[in-house]
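Incident log entry.

Two folding requests arrived from the same account within the same minute. Monitoring flagged them as a possible duplicate submission, but the sequences differ. Recording both here for audit purposes.

Request one:
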Amino acid sequence: MSAATALEPYQPNHGARDFHVEHYGLDLTYRVASHRLDGTATLSVVTLEPVDAIALDLHGLAVRKVAVSGASLARYSHRSGRLVLRLRETASAGARLTVTVTYAGAPVLVPSPWGPVGWEELTDGALCANQPTGAPSWFPCNDRPDDKATYRTSITVEKPYRAVAHGTLVSSRARAGATTWVYEQRAPTSTYLATVQVGQYDEVVLAEEPVRQVAVVPPTLAAAARTAFSSQGRMVTHFESLFGPYPFGEYTVVVTADELEIPLEAQGMAIFGANHLLPGSDDERLVPHELAHQWFGNAVSVASWQHIWLNEGPACYAEWLWSEESGGPTADELARLWHARLRRRPQDLVLADPGYERIFDDRIYKRGALTLHAVRGALGDAGFFDLLRSWTARHAGGVVTTEDFRAHTVDAAGGVGGDVLVVKVTSQLRAWLDMPRLPALLA
């Protein structure tokens, strides 16, 4: 299907299935005072079937120029958030194209059922909050969680601002009152996990082991950040023992001077608001939650938003695991608390297929965590954490579905307890994943 849009209910009007983007080269300049973004995006594209057009997602920004190498461009159109490049001749499956788009304007947030998302203007800077469909607010892309690519992001900002993007900082060059920051992300990355953060930031080193961990914060929040993330090094070490090696080269925490409704994860990064640093608040649980997403969601990504519980369930369960490790309530105590609370909620959500407008329903987070706790109870601690480590190792850099998890868990059950446990776990997963009524939480 030419210029194929994602005709499935969990990706309405975003993304295409007939090509894959292998790499994004983004050359950006952002002016904080005028909220203006100038960009050139160079996309390395591989066609997956014969195509006579390439349809990209780009919202709100004005396209100045488009070029295609590897095929002849006939014309392009840009309307309703879709940039469609019509080719003079059909490109065969496996064709390698380079698409270059030059664009500019004031970034406009993308509407979604949960509010506007994307490149957001702060009081003194900017952040990118892409999940689930905000990436097209700042670069042309194939906006699907399963179309993962590598990135090279160059972002120029005026002094004294600092720009932070997903990936490793490979250079910074100051000249004429501005600084250009260049980041490379070599791990396959979903578009919603690409990010740029701009602010008057200093860098605070949180830990050097087992990987380098830094906080990028306004100077006035440096001391509060050191306190709020004082356990970061121990947390990464503990999660490595449970989930496998940390999947990226480093971990960066960005703290904005503004308050944010919720923190959010990006590839190798998490973004918190100033309000999330308050000592003794419930927001402390979100530190392990966002860190755990580096394994569950970022290294191992969902093939569709239908399977979002595979991101949020483990991240929520990581909160409980860290509570247990750090002297708080045990995972079992928290599981029983949340099971009792969910019993009082409507029994109308199917975890494996909740519906697009429910993908951020809190019941997905908590029921997903409870599903893992039930599997832990069936397999025992050794079998369960072997399951998590083999899951992240097998699927690192790739995408997964609920059926993948089901098959992986059943295989693990066979290794732990043979056919009897396979039958038990198969029935258990059917109840937790496929049925709306909350199952009993067995002892």
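Request two (distinct sequence, not a duplicate):
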Amino acid sequence: MSEELPEKPLLDHVMDFLEMLRRILIYIVSFLILLLFLPTPWLLPKTYYPFLFYCMNLTNHYMLNFNENIFSRNFATMFGVNGSRVVLISHGWFDSLTAAILLAVLLAVTVLSPVIAWEVYRFVEPGLYSHEKRIVKRYMVFALALFVSGVIYGYTVVMPIVFVVAVWLATLGGASLFFSIQDFYQNILIGSLATGVFFMFPLGILALNKAGIISYETLHNNWRYVIFAIFAVLAMITPDPTLISDIVLGLPFIVLYFFTMWLVKRSEKGKKKV
């Protein structure tokens, strides 16, 4: 607990936690409402066009126009789907609205992640010593950078390639390229956020190192096995049966793994100096 403050009753901690969740929920819902009704400025006053739906059209073009996307263009050519035209359809009256909300959730979580992290820090701060506060702040900044980088990488690189593979598989089966707009944005949301969480694995390794469970020597001696295991897991969880998504996700993992090794080595050197 903190050096200055006495220990609080368990009920007070629960109430503080619920209050933190309430504030975070208010931030997210307010941001979603703003996105839903905010007009596209450069289209005013001629027409009212919600900015969120403008972003949807940009997303549709970015993800599905394979010839213009620098990340998916070569894969589309390789699979022979560079001339394919995907049509997003709505199965219900409000499917497009649901899809817009899914995109808004992705934007809200990404844009508001520093605010959410600050609220979490405010909740745990009273129970930390002074030196622990500095460490937690440093780790939270690191976590935010990794998460946001992962979300951006997932949206800009991983998902366009995943959709190329999905279109290729559909054409192999002779299916017409009509896909649900709700499923389309659900995949974007899950894929982008999952990549963001995936990028945060160095924090888990550092935590295990701090706990004395994993050392730099262990990471260095077993890096081949770890990378093989990660690619094996990716092969099981990625949506396509090819190695494309595995490679796209696996390459940044390799970079992050060796970066984590460097961080662990630096941390152990710091301990020896102390």
